[in-house]
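During the reporting period the student researcher (J.K.) took over the structure-prediction task from the postdoctoral fellow and processed the backlog of single-chain submissions. One of the processed entries is reproduced below for the supervisory committee.
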Amino acid sequence: MDSWVRFNAQSQAKERVIRAAQYACTLLGYTLQKGGATAELHKTVSQLEAHMSMTRKMLRLGNSVEALEAAKRAIHLSDSVLRLCLTISHLNRAMYFVCDNVLWAGRTGLIPKLDQYKWSQRSFRYYLFALILNLTRDVYELRLLIECEGPYRASKAPHSPNPSTTLSADHLSSPSTPATSAWIRRQLHLLVTVLYSNPPLLLDLVKNSCDIFIPLDRLGIYPTGPGFVGACGLASSVLSILTMVHPWLKLKP
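J.K. obtained the following structure tokens:
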């Protein structure tokens, strides 16, 4: 099993590169269409995108095994929130890969008369659930870091004898007060500081935020169009490649 996981990790690196190229073709096709390019050129780009999609599906054969192994590791985490989010996320990823493998078999003719639309929608639903849980995990870790950083910065800040510097419930209920504006600015500055000092969390948050628009568009929940989907897919693919080139940028666990 370990040897298969190591082999699968090499395939994932190739899949990430092809994924970036696929979404680059999606973005290029949208740009050519808007720019009034010839139908033949647009068809060529679309066919190239379809071939890359099929290549990715072939490289993802067996990824469900790696996702199940990740779920087995996540179930032993001590933090209950991380354990719940990561375990269910990996299980959804495993189901997504199973549906993806069935789609590949249907498109290659191994499973004739397969309802590809139904299986495609099913796979994107699992993908969406996994991304929602990943974003929940990112927000949870961000909240923990802010809770740790806030008191530390407060202890380092000079104490003011003026009691008006502390926000009361009345100040919070009137958002137009200068004290509330200053509090919001401090919170935003704290958020930026925490994200800046934790590049793995920042990259994972941005990557998942970009990725989530893909299933939202394909499922018709929040249609954004091929141009936006291509840009988001390309951005998240580049970030994934970056975490493979520099493993310290990958969020753990």
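The committee noted the following: The first helix runs from residue 2 to 34.
J.K. will present the remaining backlog at the next meeting.
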